[in-house]
Design a protein that fits this description.
Elements lengths: L9 H9 L3 H10 L10 E6 L2 E7 L4 E6 L6 H15 L4 E6 H6 L1 H12 L1
Parallel strand pairs: 3-4
Antiparallel strand pairs: 1-2, 2-3
Amino acid sequence: MKIHYDTRLKKFSRKLRKNMTDAERFFWSKVRNKQLQGYQFYRQRPIGKFIVDFYCPKAKLVVEIDGGQHYSDDGIKMDKTRDKFLAGYGLRILRFSDREIFENIEGVIEKVLKYLK
């Protein structure tokens, strides 16, 4: 199934790439340039009506780096809706907290590698 996206999100996704959070920047430093077993990752990628933090098309994997706003009732509800939508495209979603990225990047990368296989 071809993944479409709302073209109006392109400009905003570009802005997000330029203004990544520290956690996103740190994760990106570990996955960019096909560092993980040759898998290509894209950052701030529009998929449907959403922009995902990181996307690996070959593995059909989305990686989300969640800051504090994702843990409010509204944030949790929005993430569930978003995850259900993305799963409809056959994508798998991995979520990590900012804290997890900074405190256990090796464990995060290990989990991602497990999903890439």
